[in-house]
Every structure is written in structure tokens, then in C-alpha cells.
Amino acid sequence: DTAVSQTPKYLVTQMGNDKSIKCEQNLGHDTMYWYKQDSKKFLKIMFSYNNKELIINETVPNRFSPKSPDKAHLNLHINSLELGDSAVYFCASSPASLDTEAFFGQGTRLTVV
Amino acid sequence: AQSVTQLDSQVPVFEEAPVELRCNYSSSVSVYLFWYVQYPNQGLQLLLKYLSGSTLVESINGFEAEFNKSQTSFHLRKPSVHISDTAEYFCAVTQGAGGGADGLTFGKGTHLIIQP
Asked: Could you tell me the CA-to-CA distances from B93 to A98, B2, B53, B59, B84 in Å, in that order?
């Protein structure tokens, strides 16, 4: 069984649309994250979420909003999509103490046209 | 604040030759260090990690990395590479404190290209 799963794997949409990416982890981890990988493969954290505490990277536009219905899920909502939002988005999870590694999903390739 | 520098964006190596991928970090507190590998069109997989203890850590597929606190480095090495090692390699760091709220800080990645 996949530890961290994301859907969809590919997402093509037009500018201005609103879209969501779903993430689920079955590892029992307390903390979940969203990372963005740009066209140059640079990875940067967007959000971390732990027991209802949300840590936001200050560089992330407020068009992006994470929503966690429960401990095992952290979805990413994006409003008014822009061309520059095209990237690969990775969900990850880790135990609370993070004295171990984070586990990553397979990524969602978002293309805004 | 912490940062990671991977000095080489691309490293071409002949098959069966040794390779070293360089990683330096900057942090005002103690850190945990990781190497992740990303094969084409796939997600990130942990290659190896340094948490504490022995400064030399090894992976199951022949890679090793050595934590050098004085040089703030965590270079990745393999004595003999294979075509299947072609991938993007990311060095990452996180602070030692519990909670993990800051997540991982990644370097910009090194593309390892194995030439036959």
C-alpha cells in the first residue's frame, strides 16, 4: 500500500480556474507538508500542518490554502490559477519529532495554460 | 535560518567510475541531514540520513555520505556507479528540535548523468 498518495498525478487547467490536489497518508504521522518543485527542480516548502497548527511559508500567495479534514489528509486548494503556478507539487508526512525522514508522495504535475 | 548548497548542478560520470556529489549546509543550530533521490518523473525517495552517532552513513545501494561538522558538509559518494543511478539528487537539512514544523530545506539538486 502506498504510504503517501496524491491525486491527481497530472492536472492541466486554464488560468483563473480553482483546483484542488488531494493527499492522504496511512503512516499515522502527525505532520504533513506541501512542497513545490519549480521548472528548475528547486524544492521549497509551502506549508506544514501539525495537530491543527498551520505554518505558512510567507512567500506563498494567499491563493493557496491547505485544508486538513483529519490527521491523515492534507489537501491543497488553489484559487485563480496563474501561469506561474505550473509546477510539481509534493505532499509529504513525518512523525512529530522529525528525528526521522519525511515520506513523499509521487507528486502532482500542475500545468496552467 | 538554514540553507543548503549543492555546488554542482550537473555531474557527468562514466559507468563504473566513482562519484562525489557535494553538499554544504549553514545553520545556527544542530541539524539532521538527508540525501533524497528523484528518478525521472517520480517522487522523492530517501537515500540516506544522518541523525546522530557515526558520521559515516550508508545506503543499501552502495552510496555513502559523511557528516563533517567542522566543514559543515555532507558529501555523497559511490565508488562505482551504474546506469540506473542516473537521477536528480537532493541534499536536505532540518533542525534537530522536535515538531518538524519548518520542514526540510533543500539544496538545488545535482543531476547525476551516467555515461556508458
From this structure: 11, 8, 17, 18, 26
Q: Which residues of A touch B44 (CB under 8 A)?
A: 43, 90, 92, 104
pLDDT tier at A99 (50, 70, 90 boundaries)? low
- With contacts defined as CB-CB under 8 Å, which chain A residues touch B45? 104
Burial of A3-41, coded b for 16+ CB within 10 Å and e otherwise, reads ebebeeeebebeeeeebebbbbbeeebbbbbbbbbeeeb
The span from the CA of A37 to the CA of A88, in Å, is 5
Q: What is the dihedral of CA A32, B7, B32, B67, to 10 degrees?
A: 150
Check: CB of residue B96 under 8 Å from CB of residue B34: no
Using DSSP's 3-state secondary structure scheme, residue A83 falls into: helix
Residues of A in contact with B94 (CB under 8 A): 98
Among the partner-chain residues B34, B99, B109, the one whose CB lies closest to the CB of A101 is B34
The closest alpha carbon to A52, from A25, A30, A24, A36, belongs to A30
CA distances from B46 to A31, A32, A79, A101, B62 (A): 17, 16, 32, 7, 14
Mean pLDDT lowest among A17-21, A107-111, B42-46: B42-46
For A1-11, how does the pLDDT look when each residue is reduced to its tens digit (9 = 90+)? 679 999 999 99
Asked if B89 and B81 count as a contact pair (C-beta separation under 8 A), the reply is: no
